[in-house]
Input
Amino acid sequence: MTKTNKWAAGLFLVFSTMLGCNNFPAIRIDARGSALEQAESLFETGRYSEAAESYRKILRETPPVPEAAEAQYLLAFTLSYYKNPQQDYAASLKEYQKAASRYPKSPYRRESENMISLLSSLVAQKQQLIDEQAKTKQLEENLLRLQQLEIETEQRRVKPKQD
Output
């Protein structure tokens, strides 16, 4: 260990002792666990947006450990949960993809891969529906223009006969 590393480790130990370990949640497993429990509690009480943000915060502040893998999976789950009014399958799909790729040995990997398959299909179908709705709207607009042209043509045809 270099002199600088020893000095930094000693300084860290001093500050940890003075301030208490609770001020360093990224270092303590139980602090991450409580953050995860808090996010899960938000989910359980139907506060899905807040739960998702809590899971994101855990992911920003936590190294890639089992708690992060669980937070990643639960974030994806929250985004596609059927009771979530801000349900977003595309965002959920991206989060499941992150869960599967970032945490390949996670117990959530298989479930993430299943959800990737399912959500990929749903997102593709949703996009197809959006495309079909756009085509339908365009056809309706064309039909209205044709009806208007037909009315105008009929009015021109009838008008000269009245003169």
Confidence is low (pLDDT under 50) at residues 3-32.
